[in-house]
Structure formats: C-alpha cells, structure tokens
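P.,

For your records, the input lines for the assembly:
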Amino acid sequence: MSRDEVLVLDPIGCAGHGLCAELLPEWITLDEWGYPILRPEAIPPELLPHARRAVAACPKLALRLRALSAS
Amino acid sequence: MTLPRLLLGTQDGRALTHAEHVGVHGPLPAGDVSAALAAAGLRGRGGAAFPTARKLQAVAATAAAGRHRPVVLVNGAEGEPMSAKDRTLCARTPHLVLDGAQAAAAAIGARRVTVALPRAATDALDAMRTAVHERPGGGPAITVTAVPVAYLAGEESALIRHLDGGPLKPTVVPPRPAERGLGRRPTLVQNPETLAHVGLVARHGAAWFREAGTAADPGSVLVSLAGDVVAPGVYEVDRRMRLAELTGMPAGRGGPRAVLVGGYHGTWLGPDELAGLTLAAEDLAAHGATLAAGVIAVLGPKSCPVRELANVAGWLAAQSAGQCGPCANGLPAIATRLAAVADGRAPSGSAADLDRWTRLITGRGACHLPDGAARLVRSGLRAFAPEVAEHARRGPCAACRRPPVLRVASRVAA
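Structure tokens returned:
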C-alpha cells in the first residue's frame, strides 16, 4: 500500500531554524526572513526518506507529513 | 420588497425594547429554521460569505458525533476601525440578533449563547445586556462579554482562545470552531448581522428573504459607508444598488479618487472601474473585489491615496499577533517601505520588493491577516501607480499633510 504524502507546516510553531531546508532543499526553500516555503505537491517516493528526516529534525515539531489519500 | 428589514422601526440613539421589537417584527416562531435557511441562501455577513445553513449543519453533525453539546458564539468584535454595522445593529435592535442566535441554537441543539462585543462599543454592550434581561424565558442562556478593540478580536480562532482564557492570538486550523471551539465544544460562530437575518428568515421564510439581493447573494446587506462622503454611516441596502448611488458621488469627473471595497482586507477600485458598478458579488468579482464585511471607504480628490495606503498598512502590521514568521516580518517590511514610498525616499527596486513581499506572505499565516493585507496593498499599488510615481519624483504631496481619511484606530476610545 502506498500513500501520497505532502509536507505541511504549522506556521505558529515554526521558528525559522531552517534545518528542514538543509535536509530537503529539493522541496523546501527559505524566504528572506528564514522561514520555509514548501512545495505543495506530493513528495516523490525517492525523497520520502529525506522528508522524514526533515520532519524529525525540526526542533519545534512544526513540520509534518500528511497522507493525501490511501491507495 | 421594502427596506429596511433589519433596521425596521429603529431610531438613532436607543435600542428597541422587547415589546417594541415584537410590535415591529412579531414574535419569533418556534420550530427548526434550518430548512428555511438553506432555501433562503443566506451567506455569512462577517466577511467570508460562507452559507449559513451549511455552517449550522457542520456544527450539528460534529455535535451529534461527539459527547459535547454545541454552543453559539455571536462574533460582534468587529475589529476593523471603519466597520460599524454590527455594533449599530446590536445597539438598535439587539432582540433581532438574539432571536437569530436563539433560532440557530435551537436548530443545532445548543443551550448557551455567548455574545462578544468590543469594549469600546458601550452602546451596543448596554443594549445587549438590557435585552438579555428583557427576554422571555424558554430561550438559551445568554452571556454578553466585552472583548478588546483589535483586529484579531474578530478572527474567530483568536476570539475563542481569548474567551477561553488565553491570549488574543489565532490558533492553527483545523480544528475549526465547528469541530472544537469555545470550551472545546462544537461552536457555531456567526456575526450579529447574519443572525439578525436568521431572525427574519425564521419569521418570513425563504421566498420573502430572496425578494432582496441577487440570486447568488440573496437578502439585504448592511454596509458601513466611510471616508470622503456626504453622509457616512451604516446603511441597509440591496446588492443590486450601484456604488455611485450609495456613495452619492458620480463615477468619473468630480467623483472619488478611489473606493476601497471590503475594508482593510479589501480591494481598491479606481475611477475607471466604478462606472455602472453594483454591489453584486459577480460585479465586484470582475474587479477582484468582494464586499466582505461591508465596509466601503471613499477617498475624495483631495486625499493622498499613497499616504492612506501606507497608514493602513502600518495599522495592519501592528495588528499582527507576531506568531507566524512571514506575517511578523513581512507586514512591517511592507508598511515601512510604503511609508518611505509616500515620503519619496524609497530605494530603487521598491516596487519589486513590495510585489515580492506581498506574494511571499500570502497563504503562509495561521489566519488570513497577511492574505488580506497583501490584497489591499497590491490593489492599492495598482490603482495608485500615477501617485506612487509622483511621490518618487517630488516627495510628499500637499494632500499628505491633511488628516488621514481612513481611520486606523477605533472611533471610540477603548
């Protein structure tokens, strides 16, 4: 069973540490104030391990993966 | 079809008593208002224009699925300085608002109603408290609460957090109030005007309601007319009305320099766009505007739109809760740069910076404060391009020294 997953950010929790953009530059860039900008599309399978690392690395637990739909 | 409906029988300066109210509108019928509301097509008058019947359904559905009885929150915080319609309605016809709250509460199985009004709106608070004591038994328990005068007081998640003892700051949604609101209960949040319409639909039905307004947005609507107009105030109108008729000014020569439709989250329309324009949603949408909570602010030919835009952007930046990085950083950056633009000392590349910042903050906050601010600024820069260029060349204009037309503080001291 595979699931499409997207990255979602809690904008209140996020403090702009920027670790996520270090770990997943293909999907996350930082704006000029240091806050992440996420691509809205589903994460490609080959990037999922990196996305999970980015989620785990967030010191504020503000980043998570959300399943779009079961398939 | 005759107007007014909501303000029928009201007089300046005092509220209708319960006896007067029943004399004007008749008693509130018992029974479930849900079906009539769905057929009436009433949309929320707080800004988002969400179908009221669907909101009731959502709250009733989550309440049925859970253990908590739902509650009704009347959001009369009206945090925008130029908006006066909800406090006017509550000050003059509080029982109609409470009738709507009572009918909605009955429809979703709620027994408690909380009415939140701005601390500064003493007339509305007094009228509402008196009305609560006057009402006959059998209705829900009603609490009237004064809340701070601030933009975020009207943001429903911030209001709920504040009423539950927390700071006046938005929370991340979901969960929406319908799922988990006041005291973690499923909460129906409606603004006073919306509920007053509910009180009328309960009496007169859907067909009557649809005699006013358009097919997409039926019913009458309250607008707060402000700025450079002959007669500012709160008016109950039909959305088929022309903007020129409402403002009492012709489009074109001798007319306004610009009209802000939808308040401080709204859209600036220039003279070219005003000709023939009505308040109908489809008319406004053609210009990227919505009526939102009904604020219409007019800038006359003697005002400086660049200065006004900078002032309002500064106020919006000050309203940020500072919780979300893009809003906390972006709104002050935008406001500071707009002030520099008005002063004629903006660095080159300011147009590109403002374009980038307004895009950058959109959709990246927990609430819609940054989105609305971006919309206001972008539409202003588009509508006022000649004045912006003029300020860049010559610095502040003569009109910059005039007192601002657009209020950036509450009319009544808090």
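Two observations worth noting. Chain A touches chain B at residues 10-16, 31-35, 37 (CB under 8 Å). Chain A has a mean pLDDT of 93.

Regards
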